Amino acid sequence: MSEKAIAIVVRGTDWSETSRIVTLFTREFGKIRALAKGGRRLKSSFDVGFDLLTVCRIVFLKKSSGGLDLLTEAHMAETFPALRKNLGSLYAGYYIAELLADGTQDYDPHPVLFDAALAVLRQWNELSAVPETLASGISQFELVWLRELGYGPQFDACAVCAGEFSVPWPPEFRVDFSPESGGAVCPDCSPTARDRRPLSTEAWAVLRELSRRVDTFEHPFELPPGVRREVRAILGWTVSSVLGRRPRMLGYVEGG
């Protein structure tokens, strides 16, 4: 039985002189891996080249045995040409693709995550690819990705004891951040967090605000230059902890 879906190309490898294996993140089915027979031919039944980050409408046959699905149709829906004119935005897009390819399970649909990826790619394609815009979009997407996978970090209260943080903090009050514990940790609970790291008041405030407006890609929340590097380090560290390894593209998008 054939299935239809809207998909983002997140990985591709050559299978033969004429065919390709493509990994697609679809809105309807989540991640699928399919064989595109004839996908490398100049004249084929596909009107897309399966370049990374291409959005296409596909028809595929799902394999019941657990092998590769068979892609029968693929029609171009959207591309992001401006991303390929700026190395920073291209690396950021490839980082999104890596998280979708390696950080999700086959046939585990996350339409919210698909919409977030599409929104941030459109944002970078339409706006100037400056460090502030890229860092904001990457951070927002990471927070959606973490939340959808069940690892959304807590910033409003201690991730261990659930005690709410009062604002403004007393001068002597300090919090740490712990991916293993699930977010910001109060001073009393901090000794129990083996992977704790100091979190500045300024970075905590930005992360809390960013997590509250995480789905609002239409109006980018620019990360203040003074805390941008710390915020990126915290979120990149959290993503790496969830993946169990450091993403290959993280080194190209962290900092700022």
Please describe what this structure looks like.
- The protein is of the alpha+beta class.
- The protein has 2 domains: 2-78, OB fold (Dihydrolipoamide Acetyltransferase, E2P) (Beta Barrel); 83-152 and 196-253, de novo design (two linked rop proteins), CATH 1.20.1440.
- It is built from 6 helices and 8 strands.
- The strands form 2 sheets. A 5-stranded mixed β-barrel has the order 1-2-3-5-4. A 3-stranded antiparallel β-sheet has the order 7-6-8.
- The longest helix is centred in the C-terminal third of the chain and has 19 residues, at 225-243.
- The protein starts with a strand and ends with a helix.
Question: What's the structural blueprint in terms of helices and strands?
Answer:
Blueprint: E1 2-14, E2 20-26, E3 30-36, E4 55-61, E5 69-78, H1 87-102, H2 111-126, H3 131-148, E6 175-178, E7 183-185, E8 197-199, H4 201-212, H5 225-243, H6 250-253
Helix pairs in contact: 1-3, 2-3, 3-5, 4-5
